[in-house]
Automatic annotation (TrEMBL):
The chain crosses the membrane at residues 12-32. This is Polysaccharide biosynthesis domain-containing protein. Its main location: Golgi. It comes from Clitoria ternatea (Butterfly pea). Keywords: Membrane, Transmembrane, Transmembrane helix. It is found in: Golgi apparatus membrane. It is a single-pass membrane protein. GO terms for biological process: xylan biosynthetic process. It holds the Pfam family IRX15_IRX15L_GXM. It comes from the Eukaryota. One of its GO terms (cellular component) is Golgi membrane. InterPro entries: IRX15/GXM/AGM, SAM-dependent_MTases_sf.
Amino acid sequence: MKNRYPVPERRWFVGLAVVAFIGAALFLASTIRPSDPTSLCPVSHGIRARTRVDDGYNPTPTQLSAILHYATSRVVPQQSVSEIKISLDVLKSLGRPSNFLVFGLGHDSLMWASFNPGGTTVFLEEDPKWVHTVLKDAPGLRAHTVRYRTQLRQAKDLLLSYRSEAACSPPNAFLRGNEACKLALDNLPDEVYETEWDLIMIDAPKGYFAEAPGRMAAVYSAAVMARNRKGSGATHVFLHDVDRKVEKAYAEEFLCKKNYVNGVGRLWHFEVPPSNDTSARRFC
C-alpha cells in the first residue's frame, strides 16, 4: 500500500483521479439532503441564486485536500483502477457514512478517506516514522501505529499450530489483551476494538521478506472482528496481494471461500457474516 518511492507519472492516473473523485462527490451527494434548501439560498428579484447545496454537492476538507494532492503528485496508488473500484462500489452501495478500517498508511490514504465522507476511516501502520511523514502532509487522517508479533517466515508454522491454541479457536477468539494467540492483534487502540467495522482493507503490513511482519495477523484479526460483530450485516473485507502464497493461504483459512464475493487483479473481496457458533472448530 505504501508505494513510498515516486514512479513516473502515468497517463491513466489523471483519469483515475477524475473518476475516483466524481464517484466520491456523487456518493456525498446521495447522503446529503438539506431539509429546507430554500432557506439556504437567498431570493433576489424573483431569481434564486444557485449554490453547491442546490446541487447536493458540498465537498469535505478531506476531499478537497485529496483532489489537490492527486492533481499535483507524481506518486500513484499501488492498487489498480479496477481494484480500487471494487471497494468504492461497496462504499457507494451502503449509501451512508461507514466505518472503514485500513491496514496500511500510504499515498492512497487520502483517497480512501475521501471516499467515505462523514464516516470513520482509520489507518493502522507498523512504521512510526512513516506515520509521521504521511501525517505531516495530511494531518486530517486518523492513523495509529501497530506493533506486530509475527514474522513472515513463521507463516506456515502459525497456520499449522493455531488450532492447538484455545485462545485462537473460533468459539473463543478475541483480540484485546489476547497474548496467548500470536495471530491476534492484542495491542490496538481502543477505538479499533470498540467500533464495528463495515469495511476492512488489508494492504499492509509488509509481507515480501522473511523478517517482515507479514499479513497473517491482519487477516486473522479482521476475521475475528467480522465474526464478533454484534450489529446486523456482514463485514466487507478486502485483501490485496493475493497472488502471494501467504495472503492466499490465510484468506482461505480465515476469510473462507464461501464468503468470497468477487475479485480482480490482486484483490479479493469477502463478505464475512457474524457468527455465534460456539461449537465451531475452524473458521471455515
